[in-house]
Write a structure and sequence with these properties.
- Two copies of one chain form a homodimer.
- Chain A has twelve helices and twelve strands.
- By secondary structure, chain A is of the alpha/beta class.
- In chain A, helix 1 crosses helix 2 and helix 7 runs parallel beside helix 12.
- Chains A and B meet through helix 7 and helix 12 of A and helix 7 and helix 12 of B.
Chain lengths: 262, 262
């Protein structure tokens, strides 16, 4: 790499900034930014198409082997001055590594006996990232998101997911309630997490697998979605009747679903 | 309230800024800042001593009832200009409410049959806040923190805990490993979460209660601490062998501990 970009008005820099801040830009371009060595290598090893690799000269020299691999895989590679990198970075102490990766279509095949997570209007990128990471670690076969969840390719979600966004099959549906109702009609179990008229997740029969649904941080699942589900479940809470954080609740619910599988 | 503070060099403003950014200042003064209406009211209703209440004039008029209660309870109350409030606020869209609350000594009594969480060198304030919130919701009787965990009174932890810091008994110990070893000698069960030589948390006998231990985000528990525990447990993971986020793991581990209680 001989080219060094130093100016903030460079078209590539503008593109990166746009891709980091705008879900619309990511959707239109079909790509997103991964920052940090770990995420860049994760993208590469997960088979993501690397459209562009950028790093600082220092980082290039310090992590030669990884930089070399990314440079080889990327359609375009360039150096960026440290000052400019700090400016566009989403982190406080940037490592000086980023890439633009192409979104890959990877839709879960929803089938009986499989385990999935359904997320309705999750708004907090940290929650979404953690839920994706947990879903992958526990072995869920895919995630179904309502169209109004926050964008899974925002820098915070990508980072929080620890790369699960590269690998976990994800389906985004606009009419979430209808999708869940249809799944139920097709014999897929659907579990609404709600404190109302629900059975304890510790006692529910989850052995058939299905879709575990988690709702918005403030309001939970929509009533229509709850009514469309085949079962209602709740986490038994012995303490203060204050709801759990969405990602903490999701962890427990997914864990019980996975544990019930043979 | 007639006084309005507008200058950033005002001693109270400097004190608030210091208390928000410095764990040392919080320790020395024995107090911390709670921002937002919900947290301020939570502090009040949880019986915390309110040393100072500050709000913008707008917020005072908009939330008269709550403001009135805080004003009555607080040793000192003052208005702050909106521009100054934005400057000191830890959030992007400040509500214009904050208070300084006194730290209250509230140490858990560790006894047989009780359920507790032990945290060793947790570094991320969001993780710590979520773990405290989850511990309270699930009904843990207290938390034991190693002295090198991040400060529980930092704004991020206080916010993430949803006020659990006001109510949950917390003990901070400098020699964490020794404390855990002593607890074990005194007949308290201590569970080390570690992937090595551990039994599945789903199959472990947790009915005696005890202390569930969770370690640092990157490195887990210290070997010495693991060796000091009476049992090793792990979360069964069917997916990618990538560890769970510390707060996700803590949620599942605490949930299983609480579920096993009669």
């Amino acid at each position: 790499m001989t080219e060094i970009i130093t100016g903030k008005d460079n078209p590539l820099i503008k593109r990166i900034t746009k891709l980091m801040s705008s879900a619309k830009a990511r959707r239109e371009e079909g790509c997103f930014v991964c920052e940090g060595i770990r995420l860049c290598m994760d993208a590469l090893y997960s088979g993501a198409e690397i459209l562009c690799f950028c790093c600082t000269e220092n980082a290039y020299n310090k992590y030669q082997e990884d930089a070399g691999r990314l440079e080889k895989a990327a359609k375009r590679s360039t150096l960026i001055s440290p000052a400019l990198f700090s400016r566009i970075s989403d982190t406080r102490t940037p490592q000086g590594f980023l890439c633009i990766a192409a979104v890959r279509e990877n839709i879960p095949e929803i089938k009986k006996g499989g385990c999935y997570v359904g997320l309705e209007r999750i708004q907090d990128p940290s929650n979404l990232g953690t839920i994706l990471r947990t879903a992958e670690a526990l072995g869920a076969q895919g995630v179904i998101l309502s169209g109004d969840c926050c964008d899974i390719y925002s820098p915070k979600v990508v980072r929080g997911s620890m790369g699960a966004v590269f690998r976990l099959p994800v389906l985004i549906v606009d009419d979430f309630t209808e999708y869940i109702a249809d799944a139920g009609k097709n014999g897929i179990k659907t579990y609404a997490s709600t404190p109302r008229d629900a059975r304890s997740i510790a006692e529910a029969d989850l052995s058939a697998g299905g879709i575990m649904l988690i709702g918005n941080e403030g309001n939970g699942l929509d009533d229509d979605t709850i009514n469309a589900c085949t079962m209602r479940v709740m986490i038994p809470m012995k303490g203060r009747a204050e709801s759990l954080n969405a990602s903490a609740a999701a962890s427990i619910l997914m864990y019980e679903l996975m544990k019930a599988q043979p």
